[in-house]
Amino acid sequence: MKKFACVAAVAALLSASAFAELKVSGFIRGGINGDCEDGYVNDPSVKGNAWVGGYYFGGNQRLRLNFDYEAENGGISARFQNDDFSNWFEESNKKVKWAMGYAKFFDGKIIAEGGKLHDAYTSTGGDLDYSFSATAETAYGVRLVVNPIEGLYVTASATNLNPDTYDYSEVDQANSAKKARRQGKIKPNHTLGAVSAKYGNDTFFVVGGFHGQGLSYAGVGFTGIENLTLIAEGKMDLTYHGQNHKAHQYGIIVGNLEYAPNDNITLGCISYSYIARKHQFFADGGTKEEDASGYQHMIVPYVSFKVTELLELRGESSFYIADRWDEDDYGTRLRNYFTVTPSVVLNASKKANVTAWATIYSRDDKLNYSKTDLGHTSAGVGVCYKF
Q: How many CB atoms lie within 10 A of CB 307?
């Protein structure tokens, strides 16, 4: 806590004195919620880790601090974020989302970046906003950004996207990895290179990227109609992870549709499709494959209506369908469910608000689920302040 106080004090001094170009922004949010007994949860409980229920409008407690300093032909950008108020500085919680410096040449037509990278030029721009730095918490390295014509950005980077590809401590496990690599079944973790590009104008944008370890993403968006957002984005992950010598291959496709006819009304829908291909285990010099293929789909329609400057009404639903047995990760079959989350927002200002919410949860009880850690009806109150 003392470390955090020092960081905040230094940031305040810098932003208020000679370094007036340093911009500090962000928000802090938190709340309390109660879980209701529904026959599958052992006891009702009260928790303080949630801010607001729901997927689109909701989220857990969070402190976010953005630091941006731009001088002539260069600057720094960093984000500190904590989603666990009982755990402030452990690296396992990935507090520093990014921290990088950059240098601009030829009026910003060429930009060199280094550090824990954040992609401000070639992300997909949708609900999940894919990029190589957004899809991996370990994107340390360097990147070159080129802006040859208006609306076009091309990047090339070298990062340790997946430094823990191998984590073998036994000799036989190391031999298994070497054999699998010779057979072309896994990629070495020294594959660092990645490329990405994005082009956009007043009507549309298109973006894509590929990393040498087998991670790729793409997106397209239509921006030709005022107040209408239409974006499709997706990623494919064929990277190999050291944990249990397992290769988990999957793809995600996300669709974003939103229409705001005026400042008071917003209508939208997000769809998610997750498709898993297989697991692979390397052991005893051979390869064992476990069929864990399947799919998961979720559709989230949402609406908000601003009644007055003080009062705003919101609502969203989640329709989740799955056909996959994931014994290793969950010990049970993934379940189908449906939720409805109405909420009432009181806006003290454009920066401060209080939200009262409730999530009504219903699931398919025909399958033999585990009777612990399943979704359940809940309600709570959350507070947020932006700065």
A: 11
Of the candidates 382, 347, 384, 358, the one whose C-alpha atom is nearest the C-alpha of residue 263 is: 347
Q: Using a CB cutoff of 8 Å and minimum separation of 24, what contacts does 204-207 make?
A: 205/125, 207/122, 207/123, 207/124, 207/125
Task: Give 31-75 pLDDT, tens digit per residue.
Answer: 998 877 554 444 557 777 788 888 899 988 999 999 999 988 899
For residues 240 and 165, give the distance between their C-alpha atoms in angstroms, rounded to a whole number: 6
* CA quadruple 131, 134, 137, 143: dihedral sign: positive
Global pTM value:
0.77
Percentages helix, strand, coil for the chain (3-state, rounded to 5) are 10, 55, 35
* Helix and strand totals (H; E) in the chain: 4, 24
- Tokens at 200, concatenated: 């956009």
**Residue 288: HSE in the Cβ half-sphere, 13 Å Cα cutoff:** 9
Among positive and negative, which fits the CA dihedral 34, 35, 37, 38? positive
Give the residue ranges of DSSP H helices in 225-320: none
pLDDT in tens, 143-180: 999 999 999 999 999 877 654 343 333 333 444 545 54
List beta partners, residue 314.
304, 343
- For residue 232, with 0-12 CB atoms within 10 Å meaning exposed, 13-18 middle and 19 or more buried, which class applies? middle
Strand duo 228-237 + 265-283: pairing: unpaired
Q: Per-residue confidence at 350, pLDDT binned at 50, 70, 90?
A: very high
Residue with tokens 């291909």: 277
**Locus of tokens 């729901």:** 54
CA angle 97, 98, 103 (to 5 degrees): 170
Q: Which residue's structure tokens are 């894919």? A: 130
